[in-house]
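Sample entry (295 residues):
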Amino acid sequence: QNGHGKEAIALFQQMGSEGVKPDAITFISVLSACSRAGLLDDGRRYFISMSRDHGVIPTVGHYVCMIDLLGRAGQLNEAEHLIYNMPVEPHVVVWTNFLSACRSHVDVERGIHVAEHIFELDPTNAAPYVLLSNIYATADRWDDVGHVRKEMKHKGVQKQPGHSRIEVKNRVHEFVVRDTSHPQREMIYAELHRLTRQIEELGYVADTKAVLHDLVEEKKKHMLYYHSEKVAIAYGLITTPPGTPLRIIKNLRVCSDCHAFTKFITKVVGRKIIVRDANRFHHFQDGSCSCGDYW
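Predicted structure, serialized as tokens:
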């Protein structure tokens, strides 16, 4: 989860050379490492070898890792085939991982089919509604986006609001999009504005594809400007000594624009910024991220 997939594989190989027998948990870690690092061929090989060479029978957890690996790599046909050939009934997590892959690769028709299946399994789960809405938005099907949102409202399904947290001087500060509740908000937004101008001079361009609303470009840029992790970063920079690493926790997956923004910020401030999002840790430093832009 910290972006060291190849190191995890090397450690697994060292275990084998020293005679340490892997168990089911070991293979969860190995397959997860392959998924996070995009090691498709390695993941396939370890998934086959776990039962063939080590007598470890794959569980739902191992299948979730494989669906995630294949989905991230765009191997949607193979992932779907694996789901339908699981020895146990695939549960919501399996299907939701697959739906997330459909979103990443904008496979609209397959995404619709998968989302409808999840609706039957778990009607109150907001994740498939949000993912399906995002698929439609990416495909510029705004009428369908509106339909999904109406369905959510009709069924009382609520999307989890995004927030970011940072601890400064033993106190946790939480920020949401366009947060105006903090007593230092004027200083925070002044710093955010200054930083944005600075990184724009270095080549940063707002990634408006991350805004899944039918708006003109300028309004999309305005929405991106106030994302919660950006606000948390600005607050951390004005309240901690120069050179101090910032550690931020975000409850949702970091968007592509905030990811690019944070890489640029580490260039201009000379600090390490660690963001724990819903999927993994991102260690930003010197203009790059430990995930290798693969998350």
